[in-house]
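// run 5 | inverse folding | seed 20
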């Protein structure tokens, strides 16, 4: 098993040269958050996550979280590591300083979340879920609720859980049945069962604030009739001290394919009719609150995909540099010099770099949307963030799985054996395309909502940006190759988008049939654009002073490789996208059955 090492130089390159981090420093709250400061924080993060959190990755997988005497126990070392995480101030990096946060840019919090996810994804889920609670309470909570709960969750002293799913209500959240009955004193009695609740119970913090979606007695059917409630594990007195235990418990833990250290709980609320919840936001407006809670979570899960791809790369690279097998072009005779192994490594590396740039750009757009003084700029950035979020979530998590699978392949038979740790990477990766809205649902969100938002202003602007860059790149050399591939990918993406926009008005089934491949082609094109921005900056750096030439040349080669080996997918995807639904439904459900 190899130790994770934070890719500080790559992170800094993306921040500085691809997403233009310095624009954020012009915003008032971030005046002091200069690139130097960001670099210092990332440096400390690198030490913390590889030194304290990474060593628990494999032991946590083997030991797993367990339910003992009605209480969840996390694996050895998790509780202490979490304490260090809280004391280090990692939890509230981007949160409101009024409630104990550090008020730094969200993009910086995302970069540290990337480190956490690579070091130990099962551990990282606990703070990630807390973040959802922070966002929901910040946006929709009363002042009293903020005073009571927010600061403790922001600092990490308490954690949060997001409680949506029930056996009959997965993607269709509106089908949930958990009940909330008004008690008459402003509180509600919650009763029902939730499944798959990440860190619904654990022993790492004194309290867990559950955000539970439930239905009032007279609520309209479906998603119009759900409301969101704060349901603390331990009741909180008015002076902020902890009171009695609320009537809720973890009934069992799921046995999973991966993320074994993360307790996935079946939660029961109100077995004794005494589970108290507090409404957050308005009655029957829980869907709105839920979207607030899930929006950043979707980007965070995308970052989890990026984290996995980075870890997979580090594992694959180390093995490829060490394993001697067959006759190779290189002197050392290790498998890294076999063309096919190199192809796989470069596929992981180049797409990981593109994914990092996409996620950080997405996070920066969220920062600008929240903090710009100009209304137009805020609107504009929110639209960009809305457009990019399904791309980050779905493409990066698919990439995490593909990268982990390629890394197993690079290990040969040893990849299938647990001791190298790469099998765990693949097992841990598989959940990310499923939770926080399956990737299929992300694709429907893109074509059904995001393409139509603001009459398509945001995707049109993105395409114009790509076109401008492709035209600005030199016509020859590596960058010329990149420009040509980018222009071709853009042309196909534009045509497919026109097709989508035309079909949206007449045949949603055809749109749905092409949605997943459309999301992929859009993301692959944006990824190619972002790598090209980096390659252009690298070229300028080389011309300027030639310092760090090897690194800068590698950035250019990476963009070229992506242009040659990844961007061509877009033209094939365009064909798949625009085929419509006919062949999907030309066979009956019965004819699809095994014909014995
Ligand atoms: C390890 C783990 C942790 C989790 N953590 C949490 C948590 O903390 N809190 C929480 O509330 N939930 C959590 N979940 C639940 C998770 O969010 C759901 O599993 C997910 O939303 C999918 O729901 P489902 O499992 O019911 O699948 P289904 O909704 O039954 O989906 C099955 C398939 O059908 C497709 N599908 C469904 N509806 C549509 C549609 N309308 N159009 C097209 N395709 C569709 C899906 O894309 C999928 O491929 C967790 C799940 C797991 C496994």
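// decoded
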């Amino acid at each position: 098993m190899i130790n994770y090492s934070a890719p500080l130089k790559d992170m800094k390159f993306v921040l500085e040269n691809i997403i233009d981090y310095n624009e954020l420093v012009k915003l008032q709250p971030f005046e002091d958050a200069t690139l130097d400061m960001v670099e210092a924080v990332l440096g400390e993060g690198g030490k913390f996550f590889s030194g304290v959190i990474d060593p628990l990755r494999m032991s946590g997988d083997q030991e797993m979280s367990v339910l003992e005497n009605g209480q969840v126990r996390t694996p050895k070392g998790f509780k202490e590591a979490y304490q260090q995480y809280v004391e280090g101030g990692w939890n509230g990096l981007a949160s409101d300083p009024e409630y104990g946060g550090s008020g730094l840019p969200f993009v910086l919090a995302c970069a540290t979340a990337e480190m956490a996810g690579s070091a130990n994804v099962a551990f990282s889920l606990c703070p990630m879920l807390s973040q959802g609670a922070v966002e929901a309470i910040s946006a929709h909570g009363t002042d009293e609720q903020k005073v009571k709960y927010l600061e403790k969750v922001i600092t990490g002293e308490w954690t949060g859980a997001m409680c949506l799913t029930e056996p009959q209500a997965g993607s269709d959240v509106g089908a949930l049945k958990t009940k909330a009955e008004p008690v008459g004193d402003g509180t509600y009695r919650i009763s029902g069962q939730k499944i798959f609740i990440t860190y619904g119970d654990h022993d790492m913090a004194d309290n867990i604030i559950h955000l539970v979606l439930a239905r009032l007695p007279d609520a309209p059917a479906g998603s119009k009739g759900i409301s969101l409630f704060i349901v603390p594990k331990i009741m909180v007195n008015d002076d902020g001290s902890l009171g009695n235990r609320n009537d809720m418990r973890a009934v069992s833990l799921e046995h999973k394919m991966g993320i074994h250290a993360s307790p996935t709980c079946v939660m029961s609320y109100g077995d004794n009719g005494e589970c108290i919840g507090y409404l957050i936001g308005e009655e029957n407006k829980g869907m709105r609150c839920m979207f607030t809670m899930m929006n950043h979570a979707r980007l965070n899960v995308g970052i989890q995909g990026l984290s996995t791809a980075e870890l997979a790369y580090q594992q694959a690279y180390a093995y490829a540099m060490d394993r001697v097998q067959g006759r190779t072009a290189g002197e050392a005779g290790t498998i890294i010099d076999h063309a096919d192994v190199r192809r796989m490594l470069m596929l992981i590396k180049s797409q990981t770099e593109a994914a990092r740039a996409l996620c950080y750009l997405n996070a920066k757009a969220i920062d600008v949307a929240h903090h710009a003084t100009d209304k137009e700029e805020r609107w504009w950035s929110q639209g960009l963030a809305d457009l990019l979020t399904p791309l980050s979530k779905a493409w990066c998590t698919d990439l995490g799985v593909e990268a982990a699978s390629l890394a197993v392949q690079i290990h040969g038979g040893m990849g299938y054996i647990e001791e190298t740790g790469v099998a765990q990477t693949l097992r841990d990766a598989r959940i990310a395309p499923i939770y926080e809205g399956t990737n299929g649902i992300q694709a429907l969100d893109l074509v059904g909502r995001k393409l139509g938002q603001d009459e398509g202003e945001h995707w049109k602007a993105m395409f114009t940006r790509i076109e401008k860059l492709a035209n600005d790149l030199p016509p020859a050399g590596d960058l010329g190759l990149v420009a040509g591939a980018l222009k071709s990918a853009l042309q196909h993406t534009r045509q497919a988008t026109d097709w989508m926009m035309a079909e949206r008005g007449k045949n949603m089934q055809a749109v749905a049939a092409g949605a997943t491949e459309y999301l992929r082609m859009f993301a692959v094109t944006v990824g190619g654009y972002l790598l090209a921005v980096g390659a252009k900056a690298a070229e300028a750096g080389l011309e300027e002073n030639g310092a760090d030439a090897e690194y800068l040349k590698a950035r250019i080669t990476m963009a070229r490789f992506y242009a040659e080996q990844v961007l061509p997918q877009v033209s094939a995807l365009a064909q798949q996208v625009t085929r419509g639904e006919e062949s999907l439904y030309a066979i009956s459900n019965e004819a699809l059955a095994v014909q014995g």
